[in-house]
Amino acid sequence: MIAPPFERVSVRVALAIGFCVTLGLWLYTGYAFQSRIDQVQREASEVATRYTRAQDLLATVRAQVLLSSVRVRDALLNPEPQLLAEYRQHLQSSRGVVKMALADYEPVVKTSDESEQIARLMREADQFHDTSIEVLNDAAGRSPGAIREILTSYIGPRREAAVAMSEEIQSLNRRAYIQQQNEIAEIHRLAERDSRRGLGIALVTGLGVLLLTSVYAGRLESRLRSQLKRDIRISRELHETATKLISAQEEERRRIARELHDEVGQLLTAVKVELTVAKRALEQSGVSAEPLAEAQSITDGALRSVRNLTQLLHPSVLDDLGLAAAIDASLRGLARRHDIRTELTQAGMAERLPREVELAAYRIVQEALTNVAKHAHARQCFVHLTHLPERLLIEVEDDGVGLSDTAAASNDRGLGLVSVRERAARLGGTFNILSGPGQGTRLVVSLPDRGAVA
Q1: Of 3.30.565.10, 3.40.50.2300, 3.40.50.300, 3.40.50.720, which CATH number belongs to 315-454?
Q2: The whole model's pTM is what?
Q3: CATH dotted code for 11-218
Q4: Nearest to 385, CA basis, from 403, 368, 370, 399
């Protein structure tokens, strides 16, 4: 069954993707907001700069017009030729200042109406200065009444027109500046709204990714629980199967041992008796009984083989005398067959253990002795039995070639020790091998003395 695409993504990848998406949205939102705010601040600064400069230039124009008006009045009140020349020079200079100020003028917001008003202000200022210069040219010899008439009829209106025009333009600038500031504030508000929206989207996306990841993690946890339950069930079934197999194996060994003892052993014993009777009869009749002696020797060997097989399959001494006696018999057999010095030491073994524990311990030692005989090339082997509170400690040591570090670490010495491990595990015991190249081998098994555990 092919898993859905979402389930094929690991939790780590899903979390990384969610984190990157959320972080990207937050960074993009923050960058966009900051960029917009910077742009708004730049625009506000430019508007404020233009407004301040425009107001200063218009104030300069108004000041020059007012100053020129004062100078014309002074010239008319004191029309000396030398002073009139100085006043005309001041008026020409004032005209130049006004023209430069209006040439440098930049409106806050460029509109056609304001351009027309600037042009009108330029014309009004020019007319004011032209009129003022003409008045000064004809100022000599005028009466006080004529001077007042000139100031009232010509100079005053031109001055007021220029001043009014500059104030009107300043007022227009103020309105444009206020309007621009309102627009900037609106842009700022929209930027904040967009920023909050982006942050909200990032938050919702992050929560969505978190939810999806949690759902996925929950599915994985559920599948893991199911797998663990399945593994526990399979392990229990395997344990029960191994227990049944070992029990069946022991039962089969006991049956074969009994049949060998009862059937084959008795037949061989009967053959041996018959051979003995025949040999005695031949000797009494004076015929050589040498062929029957050879047959008797073969029969004796067959009987010993049957007894050994019977002991290997199911030692009767284990049922009759207990674990220590059965292991001692196995050690004597090992010493006799392979010329290995053996020794059994025991502590706390006065009482009998449960039958299942004794049988498992005997088979464990039997398998260990088989490995010593086949693989260790040892000169001596020692078995230690120690009955601790609620546990039986079994140690089998030899001085053979030992195991490599890898084999010792993995407890791997063939199918025989796999059986040892299974027997120990079935009873809830532990199994370890301590060994090294050229350092011999020490097998340590600890079994609970209460029998099999569920």
Answers
A1: 3.30.565.10
A2: 0.47
A3: 1.20.120.1730
A4: 368
